[in-house]
Write a structure and sequence with these properties.
CATH architecture of the largest domain: 3-Layer(aba) Sandwich
Structural class: alpha+beta
Number of helices: 9
CATH class of the largest domain: Alpha Beta
Oligomer: single chain
Amino acid sequence: MDAVEVTVVELGRLPDPVRTSLVTLLERTSAANAHPSLPEPQFLAVTRHADAQPGERIVLARLRSDLVGCALLSPSGDGSTVVHVVVDPTVATAGHVLETALLRRAVEETPAGSPVHLWIMQATAADDARAASEGFVAERDLLQMRVALPLPDEVVAATRPLPTRSFVPGRDEEAWVETNNRAFAGHPEQGAWTVAQLRERMAADWVELDDFLVADDPDGPGLIGACWTKVHRHSTPVLGEIYVIDVDPRHHGKGWGRSLTVAGLVHLARRGITVGMLYTDALNTAAVGLYRSLGFTIDHIDRSYRLGTGPDPDRLS
C-alpha cells in the first residue's frame, strides 16, 4: 500500500476537524462490521473533549490525507494501557498491515515494560494468530449474548417478581452509584462510577428514563438493585440491551439478579423489541449460567490480549 502518515495526538487536544473525521471513520467501521468500533467510554472520549482521560492519546493514520485508521491508548489505574485499533473497512486487504503498524506504534507509545491490553471486537482465530505474532496472549473474553423477545411465558412465571420504577434524576444518583460500585467492586470497567460520570452518561441522546429501572429496598434506604436498558435503534435487528444490571451484595442469593434481568427484558419486549442483548465476562460462570437459563446464546466474543506482565485475568471475573 502507499506510504501512510502516522501522528500521535493527545485526545483532549484533537482539533475539531480531525475529531469530526475520526467520528466519521468510527461510524463507517461500525456500520461495516455491524458492531461498535469502540466501547462506549472510549467512543465518548473520542467524540467529546470532556470525556477524555488525562494521558489518553490516539495514533492517527492518513493515506493521501484521508484518515484511514487509529489506535486509541487509554491509561488504566493499575499502570497498564488499554489499546483499541480501528481501520477503515475500505482499506480492504491492506487493512491487516495497517492494523499491525498502528498496534506497533501504539506499543511504542506506552511506558517501557508496562502491561498493554489489546481489545479486539468480534475476535476470531485469525485475530488470535495476529495478536500472538506481536507477542500478545489472550487474557479475557467478553461475551455478547442475545435472546429472542418476548421471553416464553414459563420463563417469566418461574421468576420471582420484583417491583421496579423509573430512575428519578436528582434523587437516585448516589444510591445507584453506591449499589453499582459495591456490586462490581474490583471490576476493571464497571466498579468505580462517580455521580458526575453517571450524569454525563445519562446526558447521552439514547437515554430514556423509562428504560432505567430501579428496585427500592423496602427494609431500608438505598436500592436492592437496578436494570438499565438501552435500545440500539440503528442496529439490524434493533437490539434491546441490558446495559447495566446490578444487585447490592447485601441482597445476593435471593434471585433478584434473575428478577431484574427478566424485568428489563419484559420492558424491552413491551417497547416492541424482538432481540435482547447483553455483555458478560466469560469467567463469570454464575452470570453466564443465569443468562443461558433465560434462553440467551453467545452471538460473538470481544477479546482482550495482554502484552507484558499484567493483572491476573482471574481477578477480572
